Amino acid sequence: MKVGIALGSGAARGWAHIGVLKQLQSMGIKVDVIAGSSIGSFVGAAYATNHLTELENWVTHLNWKELLSFVDINLSGGLLQGDKLINFFREVGICSAIEDLPCHYGAVATEFGTGQEVWLRKGPVLEAIRASCTFPSLFNPVLHEERWLLDGGLVNPVPVSLCRALGADVVIAVDLNTQLVGRHALFETPEQKTDDKGEKRDLGKIEIVKNWLTPSLTKNKDEHPGLLDVITASINIMQDRITRSRMAGDPPDILLSPRVNDIGMFDFGHAQEAIDEGVIVTQNAQKRILDLCGVKEEVHDYEIS
User: Fold this and answer.
1) pLDDT tens for residues 51-60?
2) Which sequence positions are flagged as catalytic?
3) Counting Cβ atoms within 10 Å, is residue 58 exposed (0-12), middle (13-18) or buried (19+)?
4) Separation of alpha carbons 15 and 38, rounded Å
5) How far apart are CA 35 and CA 45, in angstroms?
């Protein structure tokens, strides 16, 4: 029996996938098939290349200063090129060909010109990740085999169909898009930034960029939404509706929905919280998972930090 996992899109919420995969390992579940959409394609590749621990160590120590070091601004199709980030992944060791991975792996992307769903199942895994994670307006589209590709979450936020196509007999799906409509990132706004005396203080460059990238929950309802407010809310609405529709037509055998709806798309500072939620939701479904996958061995839970 081949066990497959469909790792959904969700940007910073996607670190919950790390917790899910860690707990499955602790339960003695061998994942034979990995299908990822957007951030799910990246975390899935880290698992497939045996670099999940390195990824966990990196994301739990991320700060905004380090994140800004990956910025390579380019306004031709997106705010960021993404090359610096991909080069970092390459240095970590996530650079094999998909065909050489020890498990079946695939990533979902979207063709820019037609809106067609594209399954990336061969070639360099980094190219598949780069295409699947091309968040609209943030990263430049990727040219792949004469087609411009965008984020996979636009067409298939939780790729159960791809997981089955890759040969999975049992599909565990991880949906990060539950109850997201109207949710944004949770960071202090400029108005909330005060010193010890309660007086407003000047924001540094890092905080200015952070506040620009993370929409505010405290804005007056009559205030015009900002650029990232509009983009984030639109993506949340779209992914929620598409996920509901796709799940109804092709339900997984087990659906895991980590409670990460309070973590915004760009709220990368909450990695440990997301990872812990991934562990918890997998522990809660432990009996069903073990029964379905035919595993009877003693289970040692992955320790939550």
Assistant:
1) 999 999 989 9
2) 38, 151
3) middle
4) 12
5) 9
